[in-house]
Amino acid sequence: MNERAISPDPSLAGLDLEALWLPFTHNRLFKREPRIVTEASGMYYTTGDGRRILDGLSGLWCCNAGHRHPKIVEAVVRQLGRLDYAPPFQTMHDKGFELASALAALAPADLDHVFFANSGSEAVDTAMKIALAFHRVRGEANRFRFIGRAKGYHGVGFGGISVGGMVNNRKAFAPALLPGVDHLPHTHDLEHMAFSRGMPTWGAHLADELERIVQLHDASTIAAVILEPMQGSAGVIVPPVGYLARIREICDRHGILLIFDEVITGFGRLGHYFAAERFGVTPDLITFAKGVNSGMVPLGGAIVRKGIYEAFMQGPEHLVELFHGYTYSGHPLACAAGLAALEVYREEELMARALKLEPYLEAAIHSLRGEPHVIDVRNLGLAAAIELEPRPGGATKRAMEVFHWCFDHGAMVRYTGDIIAIGPATVAQHIEIDRIVELIRAALRVTP
Ligand code: PXG
Ligand code: PLP
Q: How many CB atoms lie within 10 A of CB 240?
């Protein structure tokens, strides 16, 4: 065995860091300077050495009602006292049905059937498989292509990275990507939209690229378009006014399904249960995860239109209609947490609270315009990003240093490339938003 990394944090003395391979992390650098969280409550983490860290990212865009909301904790504990697990294949438990009904009631239009998975990545796999199988059961099996978008993030399954548009997530796996996938251009264009507040007014025409792609491949070969209504992972890229409606219109014209990947945009991030509602554009399938239960227990899934579900409910009744599912599809603890989270969102009016916080966050974050290195500030709902000029010869280093500085001084933010992103929980106070923004400002001023 090699020299082993040991935590320098005194309260975690002797904690061996070596065996764990961290996801999306520079492991060697991390293990030299670890950031280890041991507790959380509301808007704050506590580190192993007892420091309080203000959570500027709702976990990873998931703890939308804050950490360890007592009602959700209580529901999970109560569920654990009743039922730990029941197979979802050929049996099911009460909480799964209750949560599916609640989600169907919240989802727009006739999106009223829910298939459970455990993560956003599985939710995406599920939606893509439903889309393919849907066309097949209707006699259109030649519709096999998916259209994603540059800079898109749809998790890390082979389906998700194929339709995704993040180069680093794809290049090592190129030989195994799905065939027949094409990509729309992204809508990130600083020349035309830098420092936009909310939705940029430029860029709706970029949706017309879909028409060109359809003409290239022929509509009869295309199963679905999958998009994040607002791109989260790539650094909060907000859709231009009118863009999503045009995408919807082109899909309709050609019988192509539209999937909104709402893993980040759902459950309060944009002040609604679904971004579809905020943008007034109804997709055929919605993927969700993260905020559905405020990040408490892994849960994801796909919500589909009535007609999609019904297309499968043909043929002999003793046959399985869709050969897909997970051991933990709709785990009882995850569903109990989901039901409680939905109750918290409703009782505490957290969607309205998010909408009310939005202008405050917008003003605060745009006050960073003019600070060193800042080339763009953008925001929508409770999501915002600051894009930095990359350091010559050291792309991403500036943002990484800002991230580290903020953590060391008491706030968790996110960086991706040279972009700092924040996504506070719906329960954030003004003073907490101020604190996050002031720490970013201070970090920018000391970062070369
Ligand atoms: N779709 C979208 C739109 C996402 O944002 C996934 C799918 C995958 O979900 P899972 O649960 O499999 O991770 C995501 C996840 C970030 C960040 O900081 C974003 C995500 C995950 C981790 C970090 O940008 N999004
Ligand atoms: N691999 C093996 C060997 C399995 O038996 C199973 C499920 O039974 C899986 C993978 C899939 O696991 P999950 O259903 O948790 O996605």
A: 22
Rg (Cα) of the chain, in Å, rounded?
Answer: 22
How far apart, in whole angstroms, are the C-alpha atoms of residue 277 and residue 265? 11
Q: Whose CA is nearest to atom 10 of ligand 1?
A: 120
Q: 3-state class of 146 per DSSP? A: strand
pLDDT in tens, 49-96: 899 999 999 999 999 999 999 999 999 999 999 999 999 999 999 999
Residues of the chain with CATH 3.90.1150.10: 35-65+349-446
Structure letter (DSSP) for residue 221: G
Over the chain, what is the mean pLDDT?
A: 97
Query: Residue 411's beta-bridge partner residues?
Result: 54
Percent of the residues in the chain that have a pLDDT greater than 90, as a whole number: 96
Q: Looking at domain 35-65+349-446, does it have CATH number 3.90.1150.10?
A: yes
Cβ of residue 233 lying under 6 Å from some atom of ligand 1: yes
Pick the CATH number of 70-347 from 1.20.120.80, 3.40.640.10, 2.60.40.10, 3.90.550.10: 3.40.640.10
Counting ligands in written order, which one lies closest to the CA of residue 125?
1
Q: Which of 96, 100, 126, 427 is nearest to 294 (CA)?
A: 427
CB-neighbour burial class of residue 340 (10 A; exposed 0-12, middle 13-18, buried 19+): buried
| Chain region(s) in the chain for CATH 3.40.640.10 | 70-347
Cα dihedral 156, 159, 160, 165 in deg (nearest 10):
110
Q: Above 50 in pLDDT, residue 1?
A: no
Structure tokens at 20: 């764990």
CA distance 193 to 191: 6
Q: How many angstroms separate the CA atoms of 244 and 262, rounded?
A: 14
- Give me 42's structure tokens: 């509301």
Kindly provide the b/e burial profile for residues 344-381, where b requires at least 16 CB atoms within 10 angstroms of the residue's own CB. Answer: bbeeeebbebbbebbeebbebbbebeebebbebbbbbb
What is the rounded end-to-end Cα distance, in angstroms, of the chain? 38
Hey, which of 327, 328, 329 would you mutate to test ligand 2's pocket, going by the most ligand atoms within 8 Å of its Cβ?
Answer: 327
pLDDT of 126-154, one tens digit each? Answer: 999 999 999 999 999 999 999 999 999 99
Note the pLDDT tens digit of each residue in 366-384: 999 999 999 999 999 999 9
